[in-house]
């Protein structure tokens, strides 16, 4: 069938001839990059799970033309555009864009050659219009002068508000125009615009179309545009009418209308849909929804090939884009990393509250920990039953040595004291017999005494052992009080009643070491690690959800560059956090540091990097904030508990202890304790092992995140 000189129906034989041509000329064209079509899609299939969205689709966007891709909502237009720019992989078929498959090594698609405006707004809300355009200008390597000139042109052309206006304060239509501006910025050879005119007033819509007509006039620029306003696509050189993942027709708008004797493109499209539905009902009652066929080829249905097709011999594409390789530039570009880092800094500056919170949160956490964990309990109520009445009785002297900040003595009768402890009012009962002083004197001075003397000369203590920390403190305070009492009464002879075990000066650490001292190094590492995980895990998830990651990728930013830029920016935040943390633990809470401060800082920074890398893994693998949060929170307690941060690893039962040892913070916490409390350096195994394990995890997480991100973009 021929509607005019350029339109022919594709037959089986021409299809076969085309395939033959494709395979024979593939090599040459990949090498030269020459192709008369700006975009050529051949037999393209793409599914989301069982849902077949693109179904053996063939499409050709001629060089230097506007191609209007039309179709009802959900027919697969956006999916097709994503496959064309390379953010989605196709499951079957071939695509060439400007002569080579998308993401072909060395090809600037994705990159400077393509301007992509996704359907989602995909703009950073904290940016101004100017920040947005500068950001893409940097990525495309435009000079400052060119960027400035293009920004001024686009602001004027797209009728944008002042360039210092924040994106978050713009209306939906204004944002869409900024997004279009970002796609037009570098004057790309190919423009891929997904519904650029939605929410744009008719005057501006016609201005945008006029601009597209102007830019393709020279024959160098090609445009593929999707729109819901079918009639506006009459200004396109070619339209493609899509339905259920297939192209129903492709050709100049007038020819499409003429062929269907329709007065409007819309009615031509309606008629095509009806024809297609009739054919579909006869041939396939199930339609296209369920992909039950294993072979895409077997699903080819030639009767559903485009009814109109622009397929002169010159624009039959000669390629085969069977490239599994999605590598682009392997060596990261500093230009892209710098652009992404500047982006993060600008966003941080625009959110001072959030930045302060990020800086202060670790300090608040460590302060709370040092203040609330590890100290002695205070003001513990203890019932005292003293059956001695004399003011000079030893019992009174002994009680006077009991630390009264920790122990609050309540003098009671025996019955009231026991009633109180049973009612939970007191943590213990301390009782002295009526002859305590005389019996104790006998015990001190006489070598042999009866059991009754020993009994009567003892302090009797009943404890509520339901709170181990309180009970241990009471035992310790009673021992200290007794030692002080003996010292007072016996002076230089006090050794006579001392326990025959003498604790000499400690080799490492101080005699007054407390639980806070043990827990602080591990807590510092955990806090740094988890804050980094939290901040990172969400950032990528949100960027991906808003289409920002895809947009950067299409602009030419690789996964590795995204990772490195995020890592470097977060290092800045971590550095400030660590400086504040160290000031507080060393200067305010006086936690000792016998070792090298440089080693302490390095280990904490490296643990922060471990947190960032792990956050990157979470955000690369998970798509929504809730699941990312759950993953980050889910590992928090198990990791904290079995890393030996709060309780020694030596208490962990065996199979779990092996797991504990391979976790990122177990050896690192031990190493930090060795540096800070033993003053050890890198020559000690316990120190270098902490560094080695941390570095190992960093490398593993970063590689894993890069691979996941690469596979998923
Ligand atoms: N990530 C996804 N996972 C699963 N299904 C998806 C996904 N993205 C799109 N789809 C489905 O694929 C089909 C085609 O979607 P697509 O966004 O390509 O349509 P469209 O033609 O661009 O629609 P519209 O004009 O409304 O934007 C729809 O049925 C949609 O629900």
Automatic annotation (TrEMBL):
Residues in ABC transporter domain copies: 39-269
Keywords: ATP-binding, Membrane, Nucleotide-binding, Transmembrane, Transmembrane helix
Cellular component, GO annotation: ATP-binding cassette (ABC) transporter complex
SUPFAM superfamilies hit by this protein: P-loop containing nucleoside triphosphate hydrolases (SSF52540)
Membrane topology: Multi-pass membrane protein
Annotated compartments: Membrane
Location of region: Disordered: 1-27, 280-313
Keyword flag Iron: no
This protein's record includes keyword ATP-binding: yes
A GO term for molecular function: ATP binding
Biased composition (Basic and acidic residues): 298-307
Main location: membrane
Spans through the membrane: 518-542, 563-589, 595-619, 686-709
Residue stretches making up the ABC transmembrane type-2 domain: 483-712
Record protein name field: ABC transporter domain-containing protein
Protein source organism: Culter alburnus (Topmouth culter)
Lineage: Eukaryota, Metazoa, Chordata, Craniata, Vertebrata
């Amino acid at each position: 069938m021929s509607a005019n000189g350029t339109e022919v129906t594709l037959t089986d034989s021409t299809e076969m001839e085309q395939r033959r041509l494709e395979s024979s000329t593939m090599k040459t064209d990949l090498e030269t990059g020459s192709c008369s079509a700006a975009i050529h899609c051949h037999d393209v299939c793409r599914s989301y799970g069982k849902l077949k969205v693109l179904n053996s689709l063939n499409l050709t966007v001629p060089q230097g033309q506007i191609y209007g891709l039309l179709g009802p909502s959900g027919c697969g237009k956006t999916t097709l555009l994503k496959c064309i720019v390379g953010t989605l992989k196709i499951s079957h078929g071939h695509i060439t864009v400007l002569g080579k498959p998308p993401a072909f090594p060395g090809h600037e698609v994705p990159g400077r050659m393509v301007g992509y405006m996704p359907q989602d707004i995909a703009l950073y809300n904290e940016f101004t219009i100017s920040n947005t355009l500068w950001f893409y200008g940097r990525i495309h390597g435009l000079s400052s002068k060119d960027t400035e000139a293009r920004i001024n042109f686009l602001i004027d052309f797209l009728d944008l508000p002042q360039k210092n206006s924040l994106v978050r304060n713009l209306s939906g239509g204004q944002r869409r125009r900024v997004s279009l501006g970002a796609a037009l910025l570098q004057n790309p050879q190919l423009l891929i615009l997904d519904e650029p005119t939605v929410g744009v007033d008719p005057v501006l819509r016609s201005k945008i179309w006029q601009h597209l007509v102007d830019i393709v006039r020279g024959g160098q620029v090609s445009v593929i545009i999707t729109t819901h306003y079918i009639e506006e696509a009459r200004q396109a050189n070619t339209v493609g009418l899509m339905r259920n993942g297939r192209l129903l027709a492709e050709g100049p708008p007038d020819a499409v209308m003429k062929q269907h004797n329709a007065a409007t493109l819309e009615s031509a499209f309606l008629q095509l849909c009806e024809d297609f539905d009739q054919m579909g009902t006869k041939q396939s009652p199930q339609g296209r929804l369920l992909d039950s066929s294993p072979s895409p080829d077997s699903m080819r249905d030639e009767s559903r090939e485009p009814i109109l097709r622009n397929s002169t011999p010159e624009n039959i594409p000669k390629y085969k884009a069977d490239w599994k390789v999605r590598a682009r530039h392997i060596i990261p570009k500093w230009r892209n990393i710098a652009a992404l880092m500047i982006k993060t800094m600008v966003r941080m500056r625009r959110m001072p509250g959030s930045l302060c919170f990020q800086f202060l949160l670790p300090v608040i956490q460590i302060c709370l920990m040092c203040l609330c964990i590890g100290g002695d309990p205070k003001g513990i109520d203890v019932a005292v039953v003293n059956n001695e009445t004399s003011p000079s009785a030893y019992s009174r002297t002994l009680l006077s040595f009991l630390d009264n900040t920790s122990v609050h003595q309540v003098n009671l009768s025996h019955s009231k004291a026991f009633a109180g402890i049973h009612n939970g009012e007191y943590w213990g009962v301390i009782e002295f017999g009526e002859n305590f002083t005389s019996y104790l004197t006998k015990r001190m001075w006489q070598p042999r005494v009866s059991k009754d003397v020993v009994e009567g000369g003892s302090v009797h203590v009943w404890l509520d052992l339901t709170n181990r920390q309180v009970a241990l403190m009471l035992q310790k305070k009673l021992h200290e009080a007794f030692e002080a009492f003996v010292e007072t009464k016996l002076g230089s002879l006090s050794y006579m009643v001392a326990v025959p075990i003498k604790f000499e000066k400690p080799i490492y650490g101080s005699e007054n070491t407390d639980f806070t001292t043990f827990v602080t190094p591990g807590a510092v590492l955990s806090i740094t690690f988890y804050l980094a995980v939290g901040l990172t895990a969400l950032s990528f998830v949100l960027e991906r959800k808003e289409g920002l990651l895809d947009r950067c990728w299409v602009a030419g930013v690789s996964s590795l560059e995204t990772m490195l830029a995020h890592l470097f920016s977060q290092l800045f935040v971590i550095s400030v956090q660590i400086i504040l943390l160290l000031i507080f633990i060393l200067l305010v809470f006086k936690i000792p540091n016998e070792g090298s401060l440089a080693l302490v800082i390095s280990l904490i920074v490296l643990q922060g990097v471990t947190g960032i890398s792990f956050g990157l893994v979470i955000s690369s693998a998970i798509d929504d904030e809730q699941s990312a949060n759950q993953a980050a929170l889910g590992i928090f307690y198990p990791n904290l508990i079995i890393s030996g941060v709060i309780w020694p690893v030596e208490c962990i039962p065996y199979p779990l202890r092996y797991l504990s040892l391979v976790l990122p913070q177990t050896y690192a916490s031990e190493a930090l304790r060795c540096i800070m409390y033993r003053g050890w350096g890198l020559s000690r195994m316990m120190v270098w092992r902490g560094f080695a394990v941390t570095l190992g995890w960093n490398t593993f997480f970063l590689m894993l995140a890069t691979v996941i991100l690469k596979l998923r973009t």
